[in-house]
């Protein structure tokens, strides 16, 4: 499973009409870098669709971080209260912004991220349209490595100039877009950092350009203010690598995507299930229709069979009305006709006992029956103890089967003998 991180340029550079390219990195679950590069967002469709998660690092210049103090509230109530809490610190209508609050500290203070709703919606919808499965939007300033007691900064070259990112604390940071003037950018960084030492992350290609400028600026500042005081304002230059951003993004703590609501990352989840749900509903409809059609066909066949049986019965017994079941009445009448003609029914006592006597005649020992009863149109027999072994029982079953009778043993020594299925036993 992979995660795709994308650093999107500031809105100001987009509005300037410059060609937009985004640094991106594809990392594995262990944080290992699999692929990196720079490309327009529209050319990342394959990577976006194949990644389990897409993390959009929103330009620090487009995200304002505010500190507010709020009483302990549930998530739903805090979301409803955020516009009123930040109203005095936001230019314009808070309803036009996406607001996301971080965790509260011991004093009840929270960091609230504010970003223009129309801007973040455009970016998230673009990723969802490219097949993103899960989208997170993090402020880029909170994805810089940070050491307490210092200021972390990153200066990147975009299509329309420099983008400066600062992180002053664990929960606060800011960003600016600047002209592509290295000396002015360093001066702006020094002014914004105040008296704190600065760690400035630069791309490897920028190190040779900025190293002498930073050294000269620090030397000039130290000469003008005293060596001891100037030494604390040194700017430490470090090469910027994706490993820094990947590690810091895991503890950013502020995801703006859930604050988008239905237009956020959850929208893609519903889109993924839209066609499967439609297909499932169609399959259910087809199956229900098929079952009803089959039921109607079987009902018609049952009606036709019942009508045929009724006609057959009336043809054989035209003067006798059909009470319930023509087939049962037919079996009863056939059994009565056989009895009137002197032919006993297969399940009568005389027929069953005669067949049993014939079967016992083939056994080496005949005196094996202790009791004999006729009940429920079957012979109920109890056998004397220790008179029948398994071989004798098998021989008796075979002899009875030849006479179309079944022998069942409900308990040891307790037999039941009745006509075999299809033997033509009648019922009254």
Walkthrough of the structure:
The protein is an alpha+beta fold and 428 residues long. It folds into three domains: 2-263, Nucleotidyltransferase, domain 5, CATH 3.30.420.380; 275-318; 328-419, 2-Layer Sandwich (Gyrase A, domain 2). Helix content is 41%, strand content 25%. It is built from twelve helices and 17 strands. The protein has helices at 11-15, 45-50, 75-86, 117-129, 182-193, 204-225, 227-231, 242-249, 265-316, 326-340, 349-360, 390-402, and strands at residues 2-7, 22-28, 33-39, 53-58, 64-69, 97-101, 109-116, 135-139, 151-158, 161-167, 173-178, 198-202, 235-239, 369-375, 378-383, 405-411, 414-419. The strands form four sheets. A five-stranded mixed beta sheet has the order 3-2-1-4-8, with helices on both faces. Strands 11-10-9-12-13 form a five-stranded mixed beta sheet, covered by helices on one side. A four-stranded antiparallel beta sheet has the order 14-15-17-16, with helices on one face. Strand 16 (405-411) and strand 17 (414-419) form a beta hairpin. The longest helix is centred in the last third of the chain and has 52 residues, at 265-316. The chain is elongated, with a radius of gyration of 46 Å. Mean pLDDT is 82; it is low at 223-233.
């Amino acid at each position: 499973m992979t995660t795709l991180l994308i650093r999107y340029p500031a809105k100001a550079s987009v509005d300037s009409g410059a060609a937009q390219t985004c640094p991106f990195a594809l990392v594995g679950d262990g944080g290992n870098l699999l692929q990196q590069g720079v490309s327009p967002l529209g050319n990342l469709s394959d990577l976006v669709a194949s990644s389990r998660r897409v993390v959009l690092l929103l330009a620090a210049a487009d995200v304002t971080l505010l500190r507010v103090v709020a009483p302990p509230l549930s998530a739903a109530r805090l979301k409803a209260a955020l516009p009123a809490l930040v109203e005095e610190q936001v230019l314009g209508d808070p309803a036009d912004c996406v607001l996301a609050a971080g965790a509260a500290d011991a004093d009840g203070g929270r960091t609230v991220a504010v970003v223009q709703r129309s801007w973040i919606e455009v970016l998230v919808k673009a990723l969802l349209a490219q097949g993103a499965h899960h989208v997170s939007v993090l402020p880029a300033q909170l994805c810089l490595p940070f050491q307490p007691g210092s200021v972390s900064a990153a200066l990147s070259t975009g299509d329309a100039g420099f983008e400066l990112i600062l992180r002053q604390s664990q929960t606060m940071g800011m960003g600016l877009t600047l002209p592509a003037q290295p000396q002015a950018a360093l001066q702006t960084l020094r002014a914004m950092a105040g008296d704190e030492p600065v760690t400035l992350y630069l791309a490897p290609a920028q190190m040779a350009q900025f190293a002498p400028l930073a050294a000269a600026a620090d030397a000039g500042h130290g000469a003008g203010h005293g060596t001891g005081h100037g030494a604390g304002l040194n700017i430490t230059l470090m090469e910027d690598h994706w490993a820094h951003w990947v590690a810091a993004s895991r503890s950013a703590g502020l995801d703006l995507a859930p604050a988008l609501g239905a237009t956020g990352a959850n929208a893609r989840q519903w889109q993924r299930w839209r066609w499967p749900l439609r297909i499932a509903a169609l399959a259910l409809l087809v199956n229900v229709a098929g079952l009803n059609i089959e039921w109607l066909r079987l009902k018609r066949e049952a009606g036709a069979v019942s009508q045929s049986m009724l006609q057959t019965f009336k043809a054989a017994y035209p003067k006798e009305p059909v009470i319930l079941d023509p087939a049962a009445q037919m079996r009863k009448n056939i059994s009565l006709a056989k009895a009137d003609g002197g032919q006993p029914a297969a399940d009568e006592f005389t027929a069953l006992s005669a067949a049993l006597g014939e079967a016992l005649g083939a056994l080496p020992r005949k005196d094996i029956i202790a009791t004999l009863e006729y009940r429920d149109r079957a012979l109920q027999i109890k056998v004397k103890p220790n008179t029948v072994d398994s071989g004798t029982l098998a021989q008796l079953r075979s002899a009875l089967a030849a006479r179309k009778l079944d022998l069942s043993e409900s308990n040891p020594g307790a037999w039941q003998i009745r006509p075999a299925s299809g033997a033509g036993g009648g019922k009254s």
